[in-house]
């Protein structure tokens, strides 16, 4: 019997999952499985780490997310309370189109739908459904929520609505069994719904830690999340110690009455193939005046700015500028540098303390084309172009799909200033929305 875990939380479900990616991948391979999924709560922070680790281990990585679905519009801020503020739904990328759409869904959940959690809604799912396979997410999902309340017809209506959104064969009713009596009741009703609607079943284990013996450390993690003590009776907990990476044989023993639900996990896994290209720079193309190439236009801007902003213009300055220009050309960043002064030329920013953001500091060029307000050489700053060239292998992947907005002397721990937001809006207008992103950096909890 082939089985694939399709509902899995890793360490990137912060303070909720203690399932470390490397340990998870190693365990999957040890159990003889050829594929595995990642479906962290509301985020895709761990997708790249998981993709790399799984590919290195010969495992097919299934990239997904357990999203939060608003009961109404994602723009509502007062709809429902407690459990009714959102439902869970597992989304898996079937292909690159699905991966792209999944990123859009998750991002808009934060930017447009954040209320307690990053929420999406049905209109967003309908717009970006292509290439995505959805699972009903069990007790926290909309279908199961209705079933636990004795509202079978409403549950069936919700299931059919999801099937309409994702298409027949792309939405599955999710069975789970962690020894909770409520799950047994829901499972039986889902079997009935499967017979009545033809919506296929899928069996999952809600994985939050890697091994069975990790249940106790995971319980400590939940206490950190909720601010509770282990001795507290009224607190969040995962009862029964069943939320680990189970073997295909263990899953088969749990669902002897639904073998097709187990087989469907592997059928879904065989459908899911995403190819992520690494190490290739994909920067926006800057439109230059007619009769110029990007390289010629950057040279003209730089040497014109050199005459305007430096007194006197020495041979040493010209040599430094030519060196910086040649480095930028060799690294493929000509259009990148043309875009920045257009975006930020009329704005003033708080400079980063020297040494804080040394990466990407072509100081003379940035002064000549108007990114910096003061001539760098005249103020005794060191030239960092050599360090930039040496670190290109680290910088290029970072810039691989974006025009970085907070890369040039912009360090402001306060809310984003209005001129920055205006510059971002200008960039979106010039380069189109799909080429402009913000970057997020964060730390994971490394204790567990």
What's the gyration radius in Å?
26 Å
Structural class: alpha/beta
Main beta-sheet strand count, sense and barrel state: 8 strands, mixed
Q: Please bin the fraction of helical residues.
A: 40-55%
Number of strands: 8
* SS element count, helices: 17
Distance N to C terminus? 33 Å
pLDDT < 50 stretches:
342-363, 371-388, 390-419
> Approximately what portion of the residues adopt beta-strand conformation?
5-15%
Helix and strand string, N-terminal first?
HEHEEHEEHEHHEHEHHHHHHHHHH
Mean residue pLDDT: 81
Question: What spatial form do the alpha-carbon principal axes imply?
Answer: elongated
Describe this structure in words.
Helices cover 42% and strands 9% of the residues. It has 448 residues and is α/β, with parallel strands linked by helices. Strands 1, 2, 3, 4, 5, 6, 7 and 8 form an 8-stranded mixed beta sheet that branches. Helix 7 links the parallel strand 7 (171-175) and strand 8 (201-203). The longest helix has 17 residues, at 181-197. The radius of gyration is 26 Å and the shape is elongated. Mean pLDDT is 81; it is low at 342-363, 371-388 and 390-419.
List its salient traits:
single chain; 17 helices; 42% helix; 9% strand
Task: Put the structure in a nutshell.
The protein has 17 helices and 8 strands. The chain is α/β, with parallel strands linked by helices and 448 residues long.
């Amino acid at each position: 019997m082939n089985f694939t875990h399709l509902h899995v939380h890793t360490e990137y479900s912060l303070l909720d999952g203690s399932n470390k990616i490397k340990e998870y991948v190693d365990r999957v391979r040890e159990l003889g499985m050829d594929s595995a999924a990642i479906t962290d709560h509301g985020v895709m922070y761990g997708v790249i780490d998981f993709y790399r680790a799984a590919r290195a281990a010969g495992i097919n990585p299934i990239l997904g997310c357990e999203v939060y679905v608003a009961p109404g519009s994602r723009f509502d801020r007062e709809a429902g309370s407690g459990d009714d503020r959102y439902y869970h739904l597992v989304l898996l990328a079937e292909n690159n189109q699905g991966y792209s759409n999944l990123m859009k869904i998750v991002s808009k959940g934060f930017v447009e739908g954040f209320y307690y959690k990053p929420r999406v809604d049905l209109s967003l799912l309908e717009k970006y459904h292509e290439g995505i396979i959805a699972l009903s997410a069990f007790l926290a999902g909309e279908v199961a929520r209705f079933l636990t309340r004795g509202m079978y017809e409403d549950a069936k209506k919700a299931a059919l609505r999801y099937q309409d959104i994702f298409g027949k064969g792309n939405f599955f009713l999710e069975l789970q069994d962690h020894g909770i009596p409520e799950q047994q009741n829901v499972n039986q009703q889902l079997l009935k719904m499967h017979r009545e609607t033809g919506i296929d079943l899928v069996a999952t284990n809600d994985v939050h830690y890697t091994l069975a013996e990790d249940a106790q450390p995971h319980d400590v993690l939940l206490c950190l999340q909720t601010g509770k003590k282990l001795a507290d009776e009224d607190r969040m907990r995962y009862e029964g110690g069943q939320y680990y990476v189970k073997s295909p044989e263990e899953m088969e023993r749990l669902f002897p009455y639904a073998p097709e639900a187990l087989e469907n996990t592997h059928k879904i896994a065989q459908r899911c193939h995403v190819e992520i290209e690494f190490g290739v720079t994909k920067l926006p193309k800057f439109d230059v005046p007619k009769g110029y190439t990007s390289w010629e236009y950057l040279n003209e801007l730089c040497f014109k700015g050199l005459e305007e902003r430096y007194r006197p213009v020495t041979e040493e300055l010209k040599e430094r500028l030519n060196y910086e220009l040649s480095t930028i050309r060799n690294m493929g960043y000509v259009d990148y540098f043309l875009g920045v002064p257009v975006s930020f030329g009329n704005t003033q920013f708080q400079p980063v303390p020297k040494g804080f953001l040394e990466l990407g500091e072509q100081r003379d060029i940035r002064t000549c084309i108007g990114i910096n307000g003061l001539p760098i050489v005249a103020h005794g700053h060191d030239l960092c172009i050599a360090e930039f060239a040496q670190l290109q292998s680290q910088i290029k992947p970072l810039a691989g799909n974006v025009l970085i907005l907070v890369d040039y002397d912009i360090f402001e721990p306060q809310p984003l200033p209005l001129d920055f937001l205006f510059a971002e809006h200008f960039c979106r207008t010039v380069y189109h929305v799909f080429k402009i992103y913000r970057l997020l950096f964060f730390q994971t909890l490394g204790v567990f």
